Amino acid sequence: MANLKLIDELLEKTEYIYVLGIDGKPQMPTNRKVRVRKLFKLGRAKIVDTVPFTIQLLYKNEPVLQPITIAEDSGRTNIGAAVLTQLGNLVFSAVVETRNKSIKKLMTDRKAHRQASRRGERKARQRLAKRHGSMIKAGMIIRKLPQYAADKFVTCKIIKNTEARFCNRKRIPDWLTPTVNHLVQTHVNLIKKVEKYLPITDVAIEVNRFAFMQMENPGISGVDFQNGPLKGFDDIKAAIREQQHGKCLMCKNDIEHFHHIVPRSKGGSGTIQNQAGLCKKCHAKVHTDTEFQAKFKDKKEGLIKKYGALSALNQAVPFICKELLKIYGVEHVHFCTGKDTSLIRSSLGYEKTKENQMHEVDAYCIGLAAIGADKGKCPGFNGEREVPGRQKVVCGSNVPVLTSHVGQNSRSKSGYEPERRAINNVFKIKQFRRQDRSIINYQRERTYYLDGKKIATNRKPRFEQKGNALSDWYSEQVKPKGKEYANKLTGHITVKKSTRGYNSKDRVMPGTTFYYNGKRLVMTGQLTGGKYYRVYGDTKTNYPVNKCQIYKHNEGLVFV
Predict the structure, then answer these.
(1) pTM score
(2) For a tag on the chain, would you pick the N or C end, based on fewer CB atoms within 10 A?
């Protein structure tokens, strides 16, 4: 027999209980809590998941299914989801926090590691060639190898460069950038996840195309879309000079330098929105003075981040629609516009703000627009909600069969009448990285000590290194007293070699669900070599691994 105390706690926290048949297929949800409790008392059901509260029947039944529509409010950082019956009743809602913005950084890091690896291999071949004396002074390809004098160049046959292969490669049809492709897969995977709990038959999605020029200038129309900010100028620098009247953005001196707000090395664009004209003095202060840099960014901010999410959506939405049409068919995929969503949201009395984007409300409105149902009274989404709901329970021989007729009320003339009920908050889903193939967990840098005092890190400075490298320290010693003195000091230096820590192949990934003292938690990281877990929503408590019971490993999209 199930733990009835636990069952009562779960029933109290939730409005709808999601039901799976004995075959594992989802059936209509129910809010007949007394009947659900009776099933557990009779041993005719078991708990599948606590968030969302899902049960599985242990007997065969013949479920009566209704058309159910899942609506998605597409976004890059946050996605809204709502599931509605054919009468417009809300049975599920969630907000998904994606990890799409981290994809670009991961691809950049992978590129950097790949380049470093190739460079290391090339240097290794050069050292090998030098060791075996396989280098000649004449030949077709001339190289300057390390440890050679400035005037000595050599040719190494075994390191001859091959013809670049990327020049003759062709992208596949419908190729997408990694960021956009990840966004498409996230939207599709969200629907597949909800399908585990509810018998989804239809899909609704909002289709928009964002015109950035119109967002900057609402009065623009017609041929004006062809006239960009560079019209009439030879290049971007000329346009910036005209825009700033030839004067520095921060002071009134003449323009001497053109500064990128978001550096090119960090993905910044070369557009006019991401550049500003500065004098020599102000340009130096931007790179050194953090307070001055903040003032500069307030004065002129590049648009690269402002419309980054909308640009990704413009590319992703057509492919999301294409995938949904492939899975569900033309008859079961419904579309609406942002205007339709806005009109319904306004009629329901919801106001969208910058702090509260109301993705779940937008998803609900998209669903209403798609199915064409009368909205009636809308759920509140914040504690007290208007949830239409009475269910009809069809009884079998001696075991009640949970067949949901959501929204039916025999006491009303029409048969359907909304009732006020208290409902739990909107589900929150967070996306975690499912796979991390990195072999190296951490790498400590080589350090140099003189008389027990740390003087340098690394032989040569790495990218954006703050402290001194050995080459920098050596140069500082040569300046006052010469090379002899610096070489003597170098002889007394002790070296602590760089060390690496490696990842275990069987390590537990963030996003894993576990139980601690009967409480469900989601792991976000590990401490002290995997002895403790850190969890979502708690940044202070460490949970000992030996007292944690893993329930479910990372599935990508996790209820938190």
Answers:
(1) 0.73
(2) N
